[in-house]
Design brief:
By secondary structure, the protein is of the alpha/beta class. It is built from six helices and eleven strands. The strands form three sheets. The chain has a seven-stranded mixed beta sheet with strand order 5-4-1-6-10-7-11, with helices on both faces. It has a two-stranded antiparallel sheet with strand order 2-3. A two-stranded antiparallel sheet has the order 8-9. The longest helix is centred in the middle third of the chain and has 17 residues. It is globular, with a radius of gyration of 19 Å.
């Protein structure tokens, strides 16, 4: 059994209504639902939200709804807590299996409503990769989509001095070999939040996970490289980038 959990809430400080925003005739939130539903391996697609409009849209695209508590729908709420709530709720409500029978779930797909950079064929490739690797090494915890952003490598970043507030300092000490060439240091990848496929133990033992995304586990995390870089959308200026990605990858 493989389940997909997609989370989204009604409020947003950076880009209000981002989950409803339409790109190429679909709201942003629909893309991860469609991708999971079209996968050859996913058995159930669940959408966790507190917002009635989001619930209606998710239902129209075929997702089952998990009611997200209001305390988990604030700016301060952590995604890991929302994923854990949804994962446990699937069993508490007896949507698929008995609460004490979690071993029936092979993997859980963890996705965000504002991260449309995923397709069904990508999901199926990721599942195949983690299955193959887990057969060889049982310590494999998860696989997640990653995008290369060398222009934002930590070796190129700077921060303000906390005392003066105006003096710029290197963000890390790992900049000795960096130059103005963005590719002068090791490639820099970021988990772009499009999709993470995790073993159930990652959610059941979240306190053991590696911050900041503890749902990925901590022992062995595999990376699935995006051909075209993408990120979850939090600001309106990202719309053009997301449309570019969807035009190149969505079928």
């Amino acid at each position: 059994m493989i389940i997909a959990i997609i989370i989204g809430r009604g409020g947003s400080k950076g880009f209000p209504g981002k989950n409803f925003y339409k790109i190429n005739n679909h709201p942003i939130m629909a893309y991860p639902i469609i991708a999971a539903s079209r996968s050859c391996n996913v058995d159930g697609v669940y959408f966790s939200t507190e917002d009635s409009r989001l619930k209606n849209i998710a239902k129209s695209y075929g997702a089952d709804i998990i009611d997200r508590p209001l305390e988990l729908a604030t700016d301060a709420a952590l995604g890991e807590d929302v994923f854990i709530h949804a994962y446990n709720q699937i069993y508490v409500d007896d949507i698929i299996y008995d609460y004490n029978n979690k071993t029936d779930v092979e993997f859980a797909l963890l996705m965000f409503a504002n991260a449309p950079g995923i397709t069904s064929w990508m999901i199926d490739e990721m599942i195949e990769l983690i299955r193959e690797n887990a057969k060889i090494d049982d310590s494999i915890d998860s696989i997640c989509t990653v995008s290369k952003y060398n222009m934002f490598s930590p070796s190129r970043m700077r921060r303000f001095d906390g005392l003066s507030g105006t003096k710029l300092l290197p963000y890390t000490n790992d900049y000795a070999n960096a130059t103005c060439d963005r590719d002068s240091t090791e490639d820099a990848y970021i988990y772009d939040c499009s999709c993470a496929i995790v073993r159930p133990r990652c959610l059941e033992n979240i306190e053991e996970g590696l911050p900041p995304q503890r749902w990925l586990g901590r022992r062995n995390i595999l990376g699935y490289k995006q051909t075209d870089p993408i990120l979850d959308i939090d600001y309106e200026w990202q719309v053009g980038h997301v449309k570019w990605w969807l035009d190149r990858n969505w079928m």
